[in-house]
Amino acid sequence: MSTSLSWFAVGAGKITLGARPTADYMHALRKQGVTHIATIQTSEENKPELKADVTAAAMHWLWLPFNVSDIFVQNDTEKAFLQQYLLEVAQTLKEGGRVYLHCDGTCERCRLFLYALCIYLKIPASSAYAIVHSFGADKANQLSRRELQQAAAIV
């Protein structure tokens, strides 16, 4: 994995996204200034050693357990959890954290979460989409209008 990262500045912090990092790659990320690994995976996907690998690399771990389908849930409890994840990441960025956001190989959840985070931070939807697009136009173009609307509705 390359350590050449694209960043989006948020307040005093920065955020980037990518594939699930291996233990070795986490050390490379730390050398690039990453302070937090934010994992968007459920407990079924999340291997127990991930948190230990993050800690061993001298970083902090943020666990944001949800599936893409959770974005479409109209349940107030699920929405409250997603809002809490947005708050936690926004606060980390406000405090100067450099967050590496990952999910699975598709990065769909990362892109939807980043879009929702932008909306949460009061960034207009067109600018939020451009930010998501800057992390890979081909994958951003695969997000449906419905998915983006649902992500924005979390806020």
Total number of beta strands: 5
List low-confidence stretches. none
Report the order of strands and helices.
Answer: EEHEHEHEHHHH
CATH topology name:
Protein-Tyrosine Phosphatase, Chain A
Q: In CATH, what is the homologous superfamily?
A: Protein tyrosine phosphatase superfamily
How many structural domains does the protein architecture include?
1
Shape category: globular
What is the top-level CATH class? Alpha Beta
Strand order of the largest sheet: 1-2-5-3-4
What is the helix tally? 7
Rg measurement, Å = 14 Å
What is the mean pLDDT?
89
**Which structural class should the secondary elements be placed in?**
alpha/beta
Major sheet size, sense and barrel closure: 5 strands, mixed
Key attributes of the depicted protein:
155 residues, alpha/beta, Protein-Tyrosine Phosphatase, Chain A, five-stranded mixed beta sheet
Description:
The protein is α/β, with parallel strands linked by helices. It has one domain: Protein tyrosine phosphatase superfamily (Protein-Tyrosine Phosphatase, Chain A, Alpha-Beta Complex), CATH 3.90.190. It contains 7 helices and 5 strands; from the N terminus they run ββαβαβαβαααα. The chain has helices spanning 23-31, 49-56, 76-94, 108-120, 125-133, 137-140, 145-153, and strands spanning 8-10, 13-18, 36-39, 60-63, 98-102. The protein has a 5-stranded mixed sheet with strand order 1-2-5-3-4, with helices on both faces. Helix 3 packs across helix 4 (108-120) and helix 4 (108-120) packs across helix 7. The longest helix has 19 residues, at 76-94. The chain starts with 7 loop residues before the first strand and ends with a helix. The model has no long low-confidence stretch (mean pLDDT 89).
